[in-house]
Amino acid sequence: MRYLSLAALLAVLWLGLSGHFEGLILAMGAASVALVVWLARRMQVIDEEGMPLDSLHRAAPYSIWLLGQIVKANLAMLPVLFARRPAIRPRVIVVPAGEADTLGQVTYANSITMTPGTVTLEVSDDELAVHALTEQAAADLSTGEMQRRAQQVARPPAKK
Protein backbone atom coordinates (compact mmCIF):
# COMPACT_ATOMS: atom_id res chain seq x y z
CA MET A 1 0.00 0.00 0.00
CA ARG A 2 2.85 2.37 0.78
CA TYR A 3 4.41 1.82 -2.65
CA LEU A 4 1.10 2.51 -4.38
CA SER A 5 0.71 5.68 -2.31
CA LEU A 6 4.22 6.76 -3.23
CA ALA A 7 3.55 6.09 -6.92
CA ALA A 8 0.29 8.06 -6.81
CA LEU A 9 1.93 10.96 -4.99
CA LEU A 10 4.85 11.06 -7.43
CA ALA A 11 2.53 10.85 -10.44
CA VAL A 12 0.36 13.73 -9.21
CA LEU A 13 3.45 15.79 -8.39
CA TRP A 14 4.98 15.03 -11.79
CA LEU A 15 1.78 15.95 -13.64
CA GLY A 16 1.38 19.13 -11.62
CA LEU A 17 4.93 20.26 -12.23
CA SER A 18 5.18 19.29 -15.90
CA GLY A 19 1.75 20.37 -17.10
CA HIS A 20 2.16 18.30 -20.28
CA PHE A 21 -0.29 15.63 -21.35
CA GLU A 22 1.22 14.37 -24.61
CA GLY A 23 1.65 10.60 -25.00
CA LEU A 24 5.45 10.48 -25.05
CA ILE A 25 5.79 12.88 -22.12
CA LEU A 26 3.23 10.89 -20.09
CA ALA A 27 5.08 7.65 -20.87
CA MET A 28 8.37 9.18 -19.75
CA GLY A 29 6.71 10.40 -16.56
CA ALA A 30 5.25 6.96 -15.85
CA ALA A 31 8.67 5.40 -16.44
CA SER A 32 10.26 7.92 -14.07
CA VAL A 33 7.68 7.19 -11.36
CA ALA A 34 8.16 3.45 -11.80
CA LEU A 35 11.95 3.81 -11.59
CA VAL A 36 11.77 5.88 -8.38
CA VAL A 37 9.31 3.46 -6.73
CA TRP A 38 11.50 0.50 -7.75
CA LEU A 39 14.60 2.21 -6.34
CA ALA A 40 12.78 3.09 -3.11
CA ARG A 41 11.66 -0.50 -2.73
CA ARG A 42 15.13 -1.85 -3.46
CA MET A 43 16.69 0.58 -0.97
CA GLN A 44 14.01 -0.29 1.61
CA VAL A 45 13.32 3.37 2.44
CA ILE A 46 9.54 3.20 2.46
CA ASP A 47 8.41 2.44 5.99
CA GLU A 48 6.04 3.82 8.61
CA GLU A 49 8.20 6.89 9.12
CA GLY A 50 8.81 7.59 5.43
CA MET A 51 5.16 7.21 4.38
CA PRO A 52 3.05 7.65 7.54
CA LEU A 53 -0.26 6.69 5.96
CA ASP A 54 -1.92 6.12 9.32
CA SER A 55 -1.50 9.80 10.27
CA LEU A 56 -2.82 11.40 7.07
CA HIS A 57 -6.31 11.85 8.48
CA ARG A 58 -4.82 13.79 11.39
CA ALA A 59 -2.53 15.88 9.18
CA ALA A 60 -5.27 17.81 7.36
CA PRO A 61 -6.79 19.50 10.45
CA TYR A 62 -3.31 20.21 11.79
CA SER A 63 -2.25 21.77 8.48
CA ILE A 64 -5.26 24.08 8.56
CA TRP A 65 -4.52 25.06 12.17
CA LEU A 66 -0.82 25.60 11.34
CA LEU A 67 -1.74 27.78 8.35
CA GLY A 68 -3.80 29.93 10.71
CA GLN A 69 -0.82 30.20 13.09
CA ILE A 70 1.44 31.21 10.19
CA VAL A 71 -0.99 33.95 9.14
CA LYS A 72 -1.31 35.11 12.76
CA ALA A 73 2.49 35.24 13.16
CA ASN A 74 2.85 37.12 9.87
CA LEU A 75 0.37 39.72 11.07
CA ALA A 76 2.24 39.99 14.38
CA MET A 77 5.51 40.56 12.50
CA LEU A 78 4.15 43.43 10.37
CA PRO A 79 4.49 46.11 13.08
CA VAL A 80 7.94 44.79 13.91
CA LEU A 81 9.04 45.09 10.29
CA PHE A 82 7.67 48.57 9.66
CA ALA A 83 8.32 50.27 13.01
CA ARG A 84 11.00 52.91 13.31
CA ARG A 85 12.19 51.26 16.51
CA PRO A 86 11.02 47.69 16.28
CA ALA A 87 10.37 45.76 19.47
CA ILE A 88 12.89 43.11 18.58
CA ARG A 89 14.21 41.15 21.54
CA PRO A 90 15.96 38.17 19.98
CA ARG A 91 16.57 35.27 22.30
CA VAL A 92 17.24 31.57 22.23
CA ILE A 93 14.76 29.64 24.31
CA VAL A 94 14.61 25.97 25.14
CA VAL A 95 11.23 24.28 24.83
CA PRO A 96 10.43 20.70 25.77
CA ALA A 97 10.21 18.33 22.83
CA GLY A 98 7.65 16.20 24.62
CA GLU A 99 7.32 12.46 24.60
CA ALA A 100 6.78 12.12 20.86
CA ASP A 101 8.67 9.83 18.55
CA THR A 102 11.04 11.16 15.91
CA LEU A 103 8.23 12.04 13.51
CA GLY A 104 6.46 14.06 16.21
CA GLN A 105 9.61 15.97 17.07
CA VAL A 106 10.36 16.70 13.41
CA THR A 107 6.78 17.85 12.84
CA TYR A 108 7.01 20.14 15.86
CA ALA A 109 10.45 21.53 14.93
CA ASN A 110 9.41 22.18 11.33
CA SER A 111 6.18 23.83 12.46
CA ILE A 112 8.16 26.21 14.65
CA THR A 113 10.46 27.09 11.77
CA MET A 114 7.55 27.67 9.37
CA THR A 115 6.02 30.18 11.78
CA PRO A 116 7.49 33.67 11.21
CA GLY A 117 9.55 34.99 14.11
CA THR A 118 10.86 31.61 15.24
CA VAL A 119 13.48 29.18 13.97
CA THR A 120 14.37 25.80 15.44
CA LEU A 121 18.13 25.70 15.90
CA GLU A 122 18.69 22.31 17.48
CA VAL A 123 16.69 19.21 18.30
CA SER A 124 17.75 16.84 21.06
CA ASP A 125 15.98 13.91 22.68
CA ASP A 126 13.91 15.93 25.11
CA GLU A 127 14.17 19.60 24.09
CA LEU A 128 14.44 22.02 21.20
CA ALA A 129 16.55 25.17 21.03
CA VAL A 130 14.53 27.88 19.30
CA HIS A 131 15.50 31.39 18.22
CA ALA A 132 12.60 33.78 18.82
CA LEU A 133 12.68 37.27 17.36
CA THR A 134 10.21 38.84 19.78
CA GLU A 135 8.88 38.28 23.28
CA GLN A 136 5.46 37.42 21.85
CA ALA A 137 6.92 34.71 19.61
CA ALA A 138 8.66 33.17 22.62
CA ALA A 139 5.50 33.42 24.72
CA ASP A 140 3.42 31.71 22.02
CA LEU A 141 5.75 28.72 22.10
CA SER A 142 5.71 28.50 25.88
CA THR A 143 1.98 27.70 25.88
CA GLY A 144 2.73 24.24 24.49
CA GLU A 145 -0.26 24.28 22.10
CA MET A 146 1.83 23.70 18.99
CA GLN A 147 3.73 20.87 20.66
CA ARG A 148 0.52 19.15 21.72
CA ARG A 149 -1.04 19.42 18.26
CA ALA A 150 2.12 18.34 16.40
CA GLN A 151 2.46 15.28 18.59
CA GLN A 152 -1.17 14.33 18.04
CA VAL A 153 -0.56 14.27 14.28
CA ALA A 154 2.45 11.98 14.54
CA ARG A 155 1.15 9.74 17.33
CA PRO A 156 0.37 6.26 16.09
CA PRO A 157 -3.14 5.02 16.81
CA ALA A 158 -3.57 3.25 20.14
CA LYS A 159 -3.37 -0.53 20.00
CA LYS A 160 -6.48 -2.34 21.12
In short:
This protein has helices spanning 2-18, 23-43, 56-82, 102-114, 135-142, 145-154; strands spanning 91-96, 118-123, 127-132.
Can you give a write-up of this model?
The structure is a single chain. The protein has a three-stranded antiparallel beta sheet with strand order 1-3-2, with helices on one face. The chain has helices at 2-18, 23-43, 56-82, 102-114, 135-142, 145-154, and strands at residues 91-96, 118-123, 127-132. Strand 2 (118-123) and strand 3 (127-132) form a beta hairpin. The chain is globular, with a radius of gyration of 20 Å. The protein has 160 residues and is mainly α. It is built from six helices and three strands, in the order αααβαββαα. The model has no long low-confidence stretch (mean pLDDT 86). It folds into two domains: 2-43; 55-154, no CATH class.
